Amino acid sequence: MVNQVQRVEDTWRTCSKSDSSGASNSGCESSKESSRSSTPVLDTDRTDRLRDKMRRRTESGDHWFSLEFFPPRTASGAVNLISRFDRMGSGGPLFIDVTWHPAGDPGSDKETSSMMIASTAVNYCGLESILHLTCCNQTKEKITGYLSKAKRLGLKNIMALRGDPMGADWEEEEAGFNYATDLVKHIRCEFDDYFDICVAGYPTGHPEAESYDEDLRHLKEKVDAGADFIITQLFFRADTFLKFVRDCRAIGITCPILPGIFPIQGYQSLRQLVKLSKLEVPEEIMQVIEPIKDNDAAIRNYGIEQAVGMCRVLLESGEVPGLHFYTLNREVATMEVLRQLGLWIEDPRRTLPWAVSAHPKRKVEDVRPIFWASRPKSYIYRTQDWDDFPNGRWGNSSSPAFGELNDYYLFYLKSKSSKDALLKMWGEELTSEQSVYEVFTSYITAQPNVAGHKVMCLPWNDDPLAPETNLLKDELDKVNRRGVLTINSQPSINGKPSSDPIVGWGPPGGYVFQKAYLEFFTSSENVTALLKVLKKYEPRVNYHIVNVHGQNTTNAHDMQPNAVTWGIFPGREIVQPTVVDPVSFLYWKDEAFALWIEQWAKLYEDESPSRMIIKYIHDNYFLVNLVDNDFPLDNCLWQVIDDMFELLDNPPEEQPADKNQAMRSKELSVEL
Amino acid sequence: MVNQVQRVEDTWRTCSKSDSSGASNSGCESSKESSRSSTPVLDTDRTDRLRDKMRRRTESGDHWFSLEFFPPRTASGAVNLISRFDRMGSGGPLFIDVTWHPAGDPGSDKETSSMMIASTAVNYCGLESILHLTCCNQTKEKITGYLSKAKRLGLKNIMALRGDPMGADWEEEEAGFNYATDLVKHIRCEFDDYFDICVAGYPTGHPEAESYDEDLRHLKEKVDAGADFIITQLFFRADTFLKFVRDCRAIGITCPILPGIFPIQGYQSLRQLVKLSKLEVPEEIMQVIEPIKDNDAAIRNYGIEQAVGMCRVLLESGEVPGLHFYTLNREVATMEVLRQLGLWIEDPRRTLPWAVSAHPKRKVEDVRPIFWASRPKSYIYRTQDWDDFPNGRWGNSSSPAFGELNDYYLFYLKSKSSKDALLKMWGEELTSEQSVYEVFTSYITAQPNVAGHKVMCLPWNDDPLAPETNLLKDELDKVNRRGVLTINSQPSINGKPSSDPIVGWGPPGGYVFQKAYLEFFTSSENVTALLKVLKKYEPRVNYHIVNVHGQNTTNAHDMQPNAVTWGIFPGREIVQPTVVDPVSFLYWKDEAFALWIEQWAKLYEDESPSRMIIKYIHDNYFLVNLVDNDFPLDNCLWQVIDDMFELLDNPPEEQPADKNQAMRSKELSVEL
Fold first, then answer.
1. Residue B540 and residue A570: Cβ atoms within 8 Å?
2. Contact at 8 Å (CB) between B521 and B487?
């Protein structure tokens, strides 16, 4: 059910506490005080820092790419940008960076601030991220405050910049931040080695520098002050960069230098950028562009071709371990360049079935409840205050302490679609429960609804059906038509290779398994029949059935989770990333029911029939989850639902012999 | 590789933290302070106490049995008794009890003391155990000391007895322990509800009591003082017991009353017992026994028949939830009675592939390294100081802190066989390494050795081959003949039902899995060839190869364990009870090599050729373990060994094209 993906290799590598331990060479000292610990990670344990990842990939000659974004102006722009993070993150960037936008209250909690966008990339999209920070005209206290906040939010990398002085009459301040070097020193002074620090390099010299050589010396100062690597300003010729690297090496700069690549995407944006950065566009490029300046497609195609050609020269030079792209928050050109270079990971391997958060506190996390499979950002949000995360097993979670729902309408949990678009998809006017069923069916089948609109999302699923769920499409279609409103499911899997393109995850050479899972809303009439049917499936099928008021029926253990996804890998312990946890289910229940009201009912006028229909479902339906424990056999959950329909269609006549059954069914109704 | 077994049901039940929690009925309070914990067990969490197990089995009408033993007189008697615990424990007693032997220093650390025998039953044999304790002529301090020690050793149940006064001139002491009631009160006063307390009942009245009614009143006092259940003195007629129960109930004794069953096993032992207990043997029994008093077999057969008949009456009365057997430390009669009653569990289900310790501190333990599979008591001994035990996963055990080997010759780690028997099995005189290989081969094949003796054990395996290992017999035979001296192995299993009679374990409805494992000693010449061969099997096969000096070669992670046995069960998280842990292997290595010297070499004279041969092997051979990670495929480890032999038999001629390989092989030799 999860679409997000990312590079497997680094995450699996960092699962091991220490690569350099000599423990295999005999002579283990025994120490009574330290027993084993399944969560051996300290806050200061930073074996997965960006500079180490760079070093490892440089050593193995494994070229990488990275992506630069700027913060959006509006909340809806933020929602779009975060979707873009997910899409572009799937191609496997080593990191992304977010520029500092001094005019946009960059360190605030606003959903459009640089700080919040970078935090979201780390925490919710699982992307290694660099936050830009400019120091010009700032007090030390202010800067320290920003850095403390960044650290608290899980950000681990800073791009230290001077920034553009405000006004033309800028002068050096005695004790202030006058150059990026001052900021680098300050970070190292106040935060020791906590952050990885990046600084900017100017292949043609900084526009304000006295000379190219003078500028190189400044760069050397920044590196000597503690910067870990350099990203350059954009340039248009490979030679420009390669000379710059040679000159840097000549004066003793040894850290990685990443070329900033700018695929030309349009005439206006090019003009604006060169103006801002005071760069000159080479004559040979202008000669191509000028004649086609009104043809966006032609310019973009040229830009792609030009960037690909330049990148090839750079990569073949042996001087370039990775490429940094100025995306201008657009996808197409950068992705195409990366595809042509073979750097875009078309079929990325997943570390776990769900996207791993990049917050260092969550580094060991490898188990989650299945319920939030389609709402991983909500899960991360509601568990952000946890001090430790399930690792290896979920355990007996007597009190998982999920965050309250009152903030759940935060921007990154909102739908990407506008109210108008939602109304088109989910119905301008609902006339019956049946019309709700049809919305679900349209979503499942990807067929237009009665008004001719495709249903691209549901309150519980912000994206179209995942490829894995698509395998179940026919069955899902059939049951949704009859009011079994499915919101989450997975098929059973009995040992597919971990490299399987649809259901695979984890390191190579392993096998993945799943128990079949189905979660849906349905009427209390259906539930009464379902409970009768489920007796036939004991103990094969575990169920939890709950309504909005918390009336709860289950045949599973009260506290013990059921592992429904697991993997077996060479040389490792078992990994079981997804569980059905009975306690978490009751927290999820609140969220799942609230979505009916918050996302759907509120599209309609108060007291309107449409709103009343959704309200009725919210108040009266049950949320059901079913697990088929017998994963080596054919999934029996569809048969369970079929049997339920069969019982509803052909209720047994009440005969003396059936008296007991009638009694039981009465008890069940009471129980519910 | 594990022969020991025990009742699955209770152990699995107690894995759940709380059966009575109402968490499934909505309204979970969220509490920020408590996150999940994978080891939720406190020392005071005693949901698995004996009285609760009795109550549950009484409620479900599931009759049980229990077994009484007395402490042995000699150390070799202790070794034999502990083997008996393992054998009789496999039939599924609810508990065993160990009598208090005042003349035998019962509270000491001697291997024959009541305290140590009961502790061994709990800790090493995994048996729920009751320690008897008599209070007559003891100070309160002494008694409190015994109880504290018992608690510290993991004992949880006490049979509180007065004991026989020393000398005929016994008088009540003012502030002393005069009756068992005083002891019960003292236990409850000093240890609150920690211990489950059992007291003795006398179906025909205590011999010293003024009257039967007076004795019943004393019993009522003992129960009112805090006893949890009653075990009666032996008796010969069912009616005697059933009347006694009626009389107890009539005066308000409501706790369980377990009949003490004594299968008559011989004329002398019967006479002695009735004399000690001042009982009268009914005329109808004496009439049968007197004529056959010199025919032990006939008397035993009669005893079995008589006991079975009486037990049937008791069980059918509905008054008897379980039967308590006075075994006199013998097996045959009691086991036969239990078999005829259908109470002996012929094919007990295993909770885990290894026998679970009954020490409350180890309650959550569910992962162990595979290395000690045939020496579980040694593993328990060497980890007895751990504060917590692996639960769910082994984790990154940077320092597992195993106990030192210097105490390893403790009696419960000794071989059950005498030096003479060992010499017969392992060779009065060894002439070459080959003669050692033949000992291994005889053990594997269960064929007599050259001297005509069966090899029933090896220093690393105190019992004949386990049924599971028997599946591999032909392959094991073949490789041992050629000096691949196997000491541990398991076949691969790809999802057999948990009810499988040979490889199954855990609750019903599950599936168990294994990766193939092979562990052996072999010469450095073989290892050099093996390492070359193993390159072909990367990354499918993980290996660790180490010699006595700790020279260690591996292709596995330094710290991460490899799960080699796991199970998937309905409604549960994954269970992975056995791992290959690289750090633990180096501790096991010390033990595995030491066994060559301590158990085998020392059988021979100093400087004798036999001892020198074993010493040579100890000093020069390597200990190798191999895991085939690809559990769904056919086990490739035999092919690995075959390839090694093939390479040794037909070494490639050194040709120019092979230069690299020759170089590599040279490096490998150096590496080793």
1. yes
2. yes
Angstrom CA distances, A426 to A439, A451, A610, stand at: 6, 10, 11
Q: Do A629 and B546 touch (CB under 8 A)?
A: no
| Contact criterion met (CB < 8 Å) for A568 and B566 | yes
Nearest to A322 by CA among A628, A92, A35: A92
Mutate to test the interface with B, among A32, A35, A361, A628 (most CBs of B within 10 A): A35
Q: Does A540 contact chain B (CB < 8 Å)?
A: yes
Of A9, A29, A68, A475, the catalytic one is A68
Q: What is the ipTM of this complex?
A: 0.77
Strands B129-134 and A322-326: unpaired
A33 to chain B: closest CA residue: B401
Residues of chain A with confidence (pLDDT) below 70? 1-47, 165-175, 347-348, 396-400, 406-415, 468, 654-672
Burial class (CB in 10 A: 0-12, 13-18, 19+), B474: exposed
Give the HSE-up count for residue B421: Cα atoms under 13 Å, Cβ half-sphere: 11
Contacts B385 to A, Cβ<8 Å: 32
- Asked if A571's CB is within 8 angstroms of B23's CB, the reply is no
Q: Are B17 and A392 in contact (CB < 8 Å)?
A: no
Cβ-count burial B267-276 (b if 16+ within 10 Å, e if not): beebeebeee
- The separation between CA B569 and the C-alpha centre of its own chain, rounded to angstroms, equals 24
Q: Find, in chain B, the residue whose alpha carbon is nearest to that of A589.
A: B26
Which residues lie across from B335 on neighbouring strands? none
With bands split at pLDDT 50, 70 and 90, how would you rate the model's confidence at B649?
Answer: very high
Q: Does A660 touch chain B (CB under 8 A)?
A: no
Question: To which residue do tokens 């914990």 refer?
Answer: B37
**Chain segment A366-389, per-residue pLDDT in tens:** 999 999 998 888 898 888 888 888
Closest among B517, B582, B510 to B553, alpha carbons compared: B582
- Do B248 and B229 touch, CB atoms closer than 8 A? no
CB contacts, 8 Å: B402 with chain A: 30
Q: Do the beta carbons of residue A565 and residue A513 sit within 8 Å?
A: yes
Chain A residue closest in CA terms to B514: A568
What b/e string do you get for A338-368 counting C-beta neighbours within 10 Å, with b at 16 or more?
bebbebbbeebbbbbbbbbbbbbbbbbbbbb
* Average pLDDT of the segment spanning B1-10: 38
Q: Is A68 designated active site?
A: yes
Q: pTM for the complete prediction?
A: 0.79
**Separation of alpha carbons A39 and B114, rounded Å:** 41
> Distances from the Cα of A484 to the Cαs of A432, B163, B208, in angstroms?
15, 70, 75
Q: What are the beta bridge partners of residue A322?
A: A64
